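Here comes just one.
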Amino acid sequence: MRNRVAIIRAILCPVLFMSFQPLVVAEEKFSISEEDRNYWAYRPVNVSNHESSSIDSIVDEAIKANGLVPNSSADRETLIRRAYFDLVGLAPTYQEIKAFETDPSSKEKAFSLLVDKLLAMPEYGERWGRHWL
């Protein structure tokens, strides 16, 4: 019993002491000068035309410049297999492939939902935990 009291006293005394500390109030007001406003962090964000500078347009230009033809979009089976291998490191089951292929929603919507589902799976964390640890 004495050990428990000593443990509780050791834990609570510092906590109680800290809770009664007076709050420190800043004496001078913080202000940003005009010179400070010129610093990059205080400037407003410049909205640029992302279409002209997106990575897709850069890649498309390089493909055309080298006389190549871009690949067509991947079919649903290829998409689900790529997503599973990339995110959880395992192949999807036959039933998962068939469910994804027969999903009536658009390919983009179905793929977005699939990725959200895979990111929420414990296997996703396990895969990347093994990778980084």
Observations:
- The CA atoms of residues 47 and 53 lie 12 Å apart.
- The radius of gyration is 28 Å.
- The mean pLDDT is 84.
